[in-house]
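HUMAN: Can I see a protein plus its fold?

ASSISTANT:
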Amino acid sequence: MILSRSALGPVGSSSRTVLRFGYAAVIALLVFSTAQAYRIQGIVSERRVDVYRQYVKQDEAISQLRRNSWLAGNYVRDFFLSTNPDRSPLLESQLRDLEAQTQRALTRLEQLNPDEMAAQSVAVNLRQYWSKLDPVPGSMASVPAAAAYQFIQQEVAPRRNALYDSFQQITEANQAALQRGEVAFADQRQDAVRRLLFSLGLCVVAGALVAIFSLRHAGRLERQTARQYEEVAQAKREMEQLSARLLETEEESRRRLSRELHDEIGQTLGVIEIELSHAQSLAGEDQPGVRDRLRRARDLAERTVQTVRNISLLLRPALLDDLGLVPALQWLLEDFERRSGIASEFTECGVQDLLPDSVKTCVYRVAQEALHNCEKHAGASHMRVALRQSSNQLDIEIEDNGRGLELDAKGMPGSSAGLGILGMRERAARVGGVLTFESAPGRGTQVGLRIPLAELAGSNGAGSNGVAAAEPEVKA
């Protein structure tokens, strides 16, 4: 018995539901992990860029302050060394521009949130530095060189050095902040990697669970499929055995009925015909009515005998059992030509009389069905039957020049073929034969049957007629 889909019951349905949820969970975790990895990558990259951008901007502001302080000192030095009468307005303009740039750079630096103490030190030193430089253009234009030198050494140089020291402090503070940012960045990255690894671990665990469940489910389905296949194969073998048995029973019934018709009914009708002839001869000339009735009765008995013999031959010709395969095929072809008017040709080569009864029956029935199909459907004008026997096989070819037919991909007539083709295949399969068809529309049809005699001899006694049933083989 074959298990139906409903026979799997709720177990199969629940398994499929669990698998659906499992696959959905794995896919959801993979999507989440991908999104998490993308987000982590974005956050890490942005954080890293922010850290370096902050450091670069602070370094640019400090560099601007350091440059302006250095230029301001140089301008003051050049002022004292120059004898140009217009040097005071020039220095005042230069200092005013540098002070404005310095104030903007200091504002940018304070907006970047540097180290508070270092930034305050820079701001204080800048105010002190510029407080000494601003009065120079107006109050020290005519001082002697010694006083100018003393001013540079005592007022400008110490404050500039203090300013450079504050610049160095804020630079070191910025570097320390950069290092702290790198450490924080590394910590954040490690934390993100841990979260990502946790998500991937969940994916692996869920995937492993789903894989294990899937393998078990697949194994269960495979076992169910194997069991169902074995049940189908067993049913097929039983059907083949039943079909073979039905064919044997049919042939045996045909043989017995043919014998009964020929031996019992045919002989009885023959005796009646003889008795009627005797009765007709005994009737006097003065009884014409009786003689005429006896003559008609004798003619009717004669036609009945012929009809019984024809029916007996159609059921199973005695020639097949008494004289062998070749005479039976010759009679079959002669009867076909007489009945249909189609010219027929029969050839045989090396055919022996000692053939298994199953082989003779199979060849005869295949030829009978092929001739019937030719007479009914082919519209042929010529038919050829060739029978050949070699040391290990028997071949028969039935070929006509009719309208032909369409063959499917397996080289067999299409779905429109009747039960006769199926019967030919069953009979060929029963003796292990190969049934072939070669045909095309408008090109006639050739039916071939090849039976391996060596295998039949080796399996003699396996079946009811000395032939074991075999799997059909069909070739184009």
Remarks:
- The first strand starts at residue 343 and ends at 349.
